[in-house]
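I hope you will forgive my troubling you with a question about protein structure. The full record is reproduced below for your convenience:

——
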Amino acid sequence: MGAYRTVMVGTDGSESSLAAVERAARLAADSEAELVIACAYVPMRGHELVAAQDQLGAEAYQVVGSAPAESTLRVAKDRARAQGADKVRTIAVEDEPVAALTRTARETSADLLVVGNRGLRSLAGRILGSVPADIARKAPLDVLIVHTT
């Protein structure tokens, strides 16, 4: 058995984050570890939700509550399984990404948290902060930032 028992990865459904999912899945498979895939979301409310419902009609369920996160997690789980991960759990978390990932890592007893590097090298990321940089500073566990961009 490898050094890690539980590998967690965050995804927002972007190709960059799905590349991080694939890398985390390979690490989990190599370590015979459980892979936890988390997707943070903030549900639409008020005017934003009403506008989406008006535009989408009967299809509005796709953007309400955790539905977008659940859809992202299904895609991520399929990609993880294709990389050899056998034990895969998905979690949709209502919160901002950094808080959601650090809390979920603690709650799942993750040994390693994997994120992509998107935003790390951008000007906005340097000025405002980025998810990978904030995770590296705040997470109380090993963090792997995968070069995905």
Notes: The beta strands are 6-10, 34-41, 88-94, 112-116, 142-146. The helical segments are 15-31, 46-56, 67-82, 97-107, 123-128, 131-138.
